[in-house]
Amino acid sequence: MTHSLRLALLAVLAVLLGACAPKISLYPDYSAPLLEQHISGQGENKIALVYVTGPITTNPRKSFGLNSVTRPSVVQETVAQLHKAGSDPSVRALVLIVDSPGGTVVASDLLYTELMKFRRITNKPIVVQMLNVAASGGYYLSLAANLIHATPSTITGSVGTIFVSPQVYGLMDKLGLGATVIKSGRYKDIGSPLRPSQKEELKALQNMIDSMNSRFLKLVKTQRKLDQKALNAVAEARVLLAGEALELGLVDAIGYTDSAIAEAKKLAGITGNARVIAYRRTQYPDDNVYNTATGQWAQDSFLQNTGVQINLFPNLPTGFYHLWAPELSPSASQF
After folding, report:
1. Is the pTM of this model over 0.90?
2. Cα 48 to chain center, whole Å?
3. What pLDDT sits at residue 72?
4. Of 73, 100, 108, 136, which is the active-site residue?
5. 136 catalytic per annotation
């Protein structure tokens, strides 16, 4: 065999191997559209699984590493899935898988509002299935569902509001650093990390928290039809296991995703088989209901697996949150 013939055969072999090789992307392209993926079951009627996982924000998420990837925010990704489920007449009901400690006040409210709009416009029922944690803002958005299910070990509750503001003035004093702030009004730099807050500033922030939290509690009372005794217990903002949440009326049943799917079928009036689907940017082998990813990578957490409070700052900016995050303070905090 001549040298040129050997080169030609090697070239053909490389092309064939390249065509057969699986496509692997270390840095996935999140401009790829969400596509319907079959999870289980058969039939014309569909039950759509929509996942809300991780901290709830309107900010795009960036992965860490040399080649960082920007991914859609939790709000954007969830709303995109709602639009797909709402525009498909074959989708008869939605099972919302919630695994989140909460997030910003605005983002939590946006998702609640979008879910209520989905129900109103499409007349399709929603059943929430809580996983590890569905606390604070994770519970807030769950209030939009027709039914709420939790696993026996789900942590939920934490119905409350918190203002988070990192403090760096002590460190600056030690380093001999300072800052000049020129402001137009006495409250213009309220919550500034560069100085201690004054008593009247703390009072003003507390009033804002109380107002935001009043809306949260009002939604709980209205949507869950709680009596005053149960509402008073919920207003303590404690985290609860599923059993106590069931007793207080915060959830409707204790079970797993299969029971949530069965309830969704019942609410939709489906008597026969139904196809369970999800919307993902990546096709997964052996896909099932426990895959909470829409793309190749799981979401980053606020805390980035670190217990050092200074590392919280880039990922937890100053603001108001419906969030259960005990890592924020070594002492007891109001949530």
Report:
1. no
2. 17
3. 86
4. 136
5. yes
Q: Place 127 in a pLDDT band, splitting at 50, 70 and 90.
A: very high
CATH topology (fold) of 28-161+227-328: 2-enoyl-CoA Hydratase; Chain A, domain 1 (3.90.226)
pLDDT tens for 254-311 read: 999 999 999 999 999 999 899 999 999 888 899 999 998 876 544 444 444 333 333 3
Give the angle 281-286-290 at the CA atoms, nearest 5°. 75
Structure letter (DSSP) for residue 153: T
Question: What tokens appear for 75 in the block?
Answer: 């709000």
Contact 235, 159 (CB under 8 A): yes
- Residue found under tokens 């109001």: 334
d(CA 283, CA 179): 51
Q: Which of 183, 188, 203, 218 is catalytic?
A: 188
Instruction: Tell me the C-alpha distance between 92 and 17, whole Å.
Output: 43
Give the CA dihedral 226, 232, 233, 235, nearest 10 degrees.
100
Token duo for residue 180 = 């000049």
* Selection from 166, 207, 183 nearest residue 315 by Cα: 166
Nearest to 279 by CA among 101, 58, 52, 36: 36
Q: Which amino acid is it at 124?
A: K
Q: Give the Cα separation of 167 and 335 in Å (integer).
A: 19
pLDDT tens per residue, range 214-263: 999 999 999 999 999 999 999 999 999 999 999 999 999 999 999 999 99
SS3 1: coil
